[in-house]
Amino acid sequence: MTWDDLYDDAARERIVPEPAKRVPAPVRTPFERDRARVVHSASLRRLAAKTQVVGPQSDDFVRNRLTHSLEVAQIARDLAHPLGCHPDLTETAALAHDLGHPPFGHNGERALNDLAQGIGGFEGNAQTLRILTRLEAKTADADGRSVGLNLTRATLDACTKYPWAREDAREPLGVHTDGVPKTLRKFGVYDDDRPVFDWMRSGVDGPRRCVEAQVMDFADDVAYSVHDLEDGIVAGKIDLTALTEPAERAAVWRTARSWYLPDGDDAALDDALLRMQRVDAWPDAPYDGSRRGLAALKNLTSDLIGIFCGNVQQATREAFGDRPLVRHRVDVVIPGQTALQIAVLKGIAAHYVMQAAGRVSLMSRQRAMLRELFEALAGGAPAALDPQFRRDFSDADDDGARRRVLVDQLASLTDASALAWHARLCGTERR
Asked: Which of 49, 91, 109, 387 is least crowded, fewest Cβ atoms below 10 Å from its Cβ?
């Protein structure tokens, strides 16, 4: 069975039909072309200057959104092969999954959601769909409206982690690092992007995610948990040997419950940690920054990724046999113990890195800066906006649509450019 048999004409359809190239070019499949479009996009390049956990300007070693996306893509591609879904399609979804993240990561997302309350909120995944189908310039329809990168239906669907609207999203659980309850719902489409979303989801009943999106989401979870732990260790903020102390573990588990596992009890979390501590590469001494220490740390991350992916591959194959996992036919199976171990690693990073007092204070200043910058842009629009957003602002039909353009402009900025724009437009460069 070929890929053309597994992914039919509807899966390969684009919003705007594209004729054959008029100039000689390498023969590529539709999904290879999709991948190339994302790789060459300006939105992907900007991720190099956007926060992952530690700000990209703080250290050359730690990850930014771009390096994180590359690592997610590698994990997703490696997992796609044994599961039988298209590796190019899955890799493209992984490369694109964070395109919608604003400056300052989830903290910036929180600030923009507050600014966009009256127009349907802000969500990084919904912004990703908006970028891929509207904001990233590549193709226009017959009326001259941008359709973004004009990706195939299957690729867009694979990029959609939350295939539902805001009103259908569940209420968030837990609190932010400053103790404020979380209010940001997870959803995948704004109201004014609903037509392209409905086209993308044609023939799909309900909010079920395609298999390729599930692979991307799991790869993101694995990379997020393992690599953020690694960055925290290298930055000197995490010492895994400290978790041998019961009181230290209890404090970490309290954080894990408030962030990720509201029903997780200490015994289950202790057991999940113990299973990981049995991995040969788990450290028995604090990280010392040496090449030997870094090599050991890299071995640990590789082993954990291999274990998590191997468990999912085995569980999924046991459930569905050898048939290819394509589109909406079956689901990825994540064993409960694997999900718990991933959550434990996330909880460790949250406790030692994301809840640090200095970081909480910095995050408050970042949100205030984005609010001030929004007001400055609103007062200076359209002249204060980038050229492409000036046109969007002038073409907007009402105040809500104009406000969405301002949010689009802010979301497109990197950490560094947000600081520079704030200095220029809010006068801080003269203080």
From this structure: 387
CA–CA separation, 27 vs 260, rounded Å?
A: 45
Structural tokens at position 111: 């600030």
Q: State yes or no: pLDDT of 390 exceeds 90.
A: yes
Instruction: Identify whether the C-beta of residue 233 lies closer than 8 Å to the C-beta of residue 240.
Output: yes
State the average pLDDT over residues 111-135.
97
pLDDT above 90 for 258? no
Is the backbone peptide bond immediately before 195 cis, with ω within 30 degrees of 0? no
Nearest to 158 by CA among 236, 92, 207, 59: 92
Summarize the confidence of residues 357-386 as an average pLDDT.
91
* pTM exceeds cut of 0.90: yes
Cα 76 versus chain centre, distance: 13
Which residues, in sequence order, are CB contacts of 145 under 8 Å at separation 6+? none
pLDDT digits (tens, 9 = 90+) for 342-366: 999 999 998 998 777 677 788 889 9
SS3 418: helix
Tokens describing residue 272:
């999940």
- Listed in sequence order, the residues at least 6 apart from 231 whose beta carbon sits closer than 8 Å to its beta carbon are 52, 53, 54, 61, 62, 63, 353
Contact call for residues 160 and 200 (beta carbons, < 8 A):
yes
The CB density around residue 285, as the number of other CB atoms within 10 Å, is: 10
325 - beta bridge partners? none
Buried b (16+ CB within 10 A) or exposed e, 187-203: bbbbeebeebbeebbee
Give the pair of three-digit tokens for residue 403. Answer: 């406000």
Q: Is the pLDDT of residue 177 over 90?
A: no
Between residues 361 and 254, the one the model is more confident about = 254
Confidence of residue 60 (pLDDT cuts 50, 70, 90): very low
The residue to which tokens 């890929």 are assigned: 3
Give dist(CA 350, CA 231) in Å, integer: 12
CB atoms within 10 A of CB 27: 6
| Range with the poorest average pLDDT among 19-28, 180-189, 210-219 | 19-28
**Cα dihedral sign, 74-76-82-86:** negative
- Report the interhelical angle of 246-259 vs 266-277 (nearest 10°): 110
Distance between CA atoms of residues 345 and 227, nearest Å? 10
Task: Give the C-alpha separation, 423 to 421, whole Å.
Answer: 5
